[in-house]
Amino acid sequence: MAQQGDDPAKRNAAQNESRDREARLQAILDTAVEAIITIDDRGICETVNTAAVAMFGYTVEEVLGKNASLLMPSPYRDEHDQYLANYLQTGQKKIIGIGREAVGRRKNGEEFPIRLAVSEVQLADRRLFTGIIQDITEQKESQRRLVQSERLAALGEAMARLAHESRNPLQRIQIAVETARLHSQTGSSLGDQLDAIERATDGLDALLDELKNYAAPLSLEKEPVSLVTIWREAWRATSRSRRDREACLQENVGNNEPVCSLDRFRMEQVFRNLFENSLSACQDPVQVEISVSPTHSESGSYWTLRFKDNGPGLNEQHLKRIFEPFFTTKTKGTGLGMAIAHRVIDAHQGTISVGNSKQGAEFIIELPQ
């Protein structure tokens, strides 16, 4: 016989309502972007949403009933239970109600930075803690890149100033060398030493100029000019490097007149660097070939230049790092030449890449017509 007030219909309705509330709550949790995990006062996981499953790589079954320290690396894993015990004993909030950064650990062992916010829910007979977790890997990486960018910008300003300020003492050295040369006898040992000093100052001047070109802000003074004119000027500028060597430049232009809006000086730097690299890498006879042809695509019209030489070519390491600052295949040099070339081409809204020539090095440059 049913006890007074024990209405099966009402009891079933209450149970159904409770299940409906739980289902609605789980649906809300599963649509949340952040990972949400609920634990009891022993640290045992009672609920976990879909975002948490995706973030940590565990299934729901692998997390429910387990201690939440499963999702943490040491020392967070070791400290987790102690945090709860201290709070339950003293009421002092070190994590509860306070957002903080921590480290999570996925099922595959990967550790990643997280932002953790924990709130407390006091029920009639017990208390629960809900943790809302955000993966802040991308945020941390953005912060790292920003700091690196700021440091590089400061370094660039310093190097540009160093290169500028060094010109005055270099000029004084050059003047002193020329004055001493006037008082020296032709063929004397003093003349040989002066020649050595002059070569050293020329090298230092070139080094500082390269640092300045890499570090200083890049401003372009564009004008319509033929690419053929620019690379011929760059080839003539290498005459000193080609002295007493067998080297030739072959041009394949056809009926094209590759004219575009360029900074003449900057683009000559690009070609001269390519020529100097070939002269350094190739044995005589050196053969450098440049071809140019028009290219049309949905993004616009371009001049495509192919630069090839008959040297040993580039190995896998060179291919990966050729445009990396301070990487060089030469015994001497800063390793900034190709980085500067890439920077100049990019400033002209063009591209420079390594080709797949079977023999020698090949570079492909595309510039807007």
Structure description:
This protein starts with 7 loop residues before the first helix and ends with a strand. The protein has 369 residues and is an alpha+beta fold. Strands 2-1-5-4-3 form a five-stranded antiparallel sheet. Strands 7-9-10-12-11 form a five-stranded mixed sheet. Strands 6-8 form a two-stranded antiparallel ribbon. The relative contact order is 0.07. A hairpin with a 5-residue loop joins strand 3 and strand 4 (111-122). The chain folds into three domains: 14-135, PAS domain (Beta-Lactamase, 2-Layer Sandwich), CATH 3.30.450.20; 141-215, Helix Hairpins, CATH 1.10.287; 222-368, Histidine kinase-like ATPase, C-terminal domain (Heat Shock Protein 90, 2-Layer Sandwich), CATH 3.30.565. The protein has helices at residues 8-31, 50-56, 60-63, 76-90, 137-182, 189-215, 227-237, 264-281, 316-321, 337-347; strands spanning 35-40, 45-48, 100-105, 111-122, 127-135, 222-226, 247-252, 259-263, 286-297, 300-309, 351-354, 362-368.
Q: What are the secondary-structure elements, in order, as H or E?
A: HEEHHHEEEHHEHEEHEEHHEE
Q: What is the number of beta strands? A: 12
Stated plainly, the CATH topology of the largest domain is called: Heat Shock Protein 90
Proportion in β-strands: 15-25%
The CATH architecture of the largest domain would be 2-Layer Sandwich
Output the radius of gyration: 35 Å
User: By CATH's scheme, which homologous superfamily of the largest domain applies?
Assistant: Histidine kinase-like ATPase, C-terminal domain
CATH class of the largest domain: Alpha Beta
Question: Helix/strand-derived class?
Answer: alpha+beta
Kindly, what is the distance between the CA atoms of the first and last residues, rounded to a whole number of angstroms?
96 Å
In one word, what is the shape?
elongated
Helix content: 40-55%
Average of the residue pLDDT scores: 80
Strand order across the largest sheet = 2-1-5-4-3
Largest sheet report: 5 strands, antiparallel
Low-confidence stretches: none
